[in-house]
Amino acid sequence: MSVLTPELREALARVGTLTLIDMPDRRGLRSMCLYGVWPTRAGQPRMVCIA
Hints:
It contains two helices and no strands. It has one domain (1-51). It is flat, with a radius of gyration of 13 Å. It is mainly α. 35% of the residues lie in helices and 0% in strands.
C-alpha cells in the first residue's frame, strides 16, 4: 500500500489541472475525458490523494 508522505503530497499538489485532464489521452484512453475540473472553493488547498 502506498503512503502519502509530505514530500509526495507537495509534489502532487504542483501538478496542473490540464496535465490531469490530458493524462488519459496519453495513456491511450482516447474516448475518456474529464470535464468540469475546477476548484470548488477559491483559496482552498488542492486536494491530493493516491488512487
